[in-house]
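Continuing the series of single-chain predictions for the mutant panel. This is the parent chain; the variants come on the following pages.
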Amino acid sequence: TIQENINIFDELIGLAKEINKNIKIIILLTPRLAEVEKAHSENKKMVRWKHEFEEIIQPYVSGNICYLNMKNLYPISENAYFYEDAGHMNAVGANAYTSYLNDFILNWES
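Parent structure:
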């Protein structure tokens, strides 16, 4: 259930902070092929899911925990060459995406 997942997430965050109180945690939504994202944006259930997800994680976001929504990272999401299929990046896409994510991590100040 959603509540069980929230409890597990809460435990994971707590455990990570126990292990390293200065740990930086990124809650991440990865890019999705633009055509798929557009189709999902027209589906009320999918739109509601994203809002519910963001409401659930918002209380966790502060200090060393950030939320990074890269679903519409257009250099990645609009390039079909980066995708193996509608739901998965290929190696070229994964490398390009990793470059964006790496830049964020290197420049992230909490």
